[in-house]
Task: structure prediction
Amino acid sequence: MRAIFFNYNECQLWLDHPADMLSLHKLADVKLLLAEQPNKAGDPVALAELRRRTISPIMADQSVFNLQNAWHLSYYRAADISSA
Result:
């Protein structure tokens, strides 16, 4: 089975919307490699909460432009990997 990379690209997954969370859980069943930037960039707290609620690996992409961004992602444990 091949791994799948899903590029959400800031599509605004909502933590309180069951269908959004279900989509990440279902993709994990098909060997999801990672979900790229599944919510708005610049909000490491929301990204961290999404990461805690799903088993799908999360990649920060539009959230990382400098060392301060990277530090915030690390501090909040907001992503499993970064594109930068």
